[in-house]
Amino acid sequence: MNWKTLVFVAVAGAQLAPLADFPQSAELALLMGDLQRLTHKLALSAEAGNVDLAAFYLHESQEQLRKIQTEAPEYENIPVALLIDRLAHPAYEQMQQAVTAKNAKQLREAIQPIVTTCNACHTATQHGFIRITAGPEVNPFNQSFAP
Questions:
Q1: What is the pTM of this model?
Q2: Most buried pick, 33, 79, 109, 145, via CB within 10 A?
Q3: DSSP line for 14-31
């Protein structure tokens, strides 16, 4: 039994029939917001030189990219899954190399291609007003990123 079957509206003490099923599409802004949070934590980990934590957030960011591709492959006529394949996945490759090499300097350098690609994709999809920064100087999370 799904949640729609359980939803009832009470009017004057009487129960109405369950709401009809309706198709729901994933909200891209929420999925991207999760990606932004994970990638910011990746940037903070890289800035702190914490290879192990950067590896964790790199993995989680890549998982979120795959989730976006699955749940919102196309959004408002934008080929999201294709853009992620062509732009996002390659942008994270330099970070993967830095993590594999366990090179803290490369970690710090590898975040900028990711940020640049995010902004290029936003511009290409008429969302250039959404500008991402690496933001390592700002830590809004209740977490230490030091090794």
A1: 0.79
A2: 145
A3: EEPPPPPP------HHHH
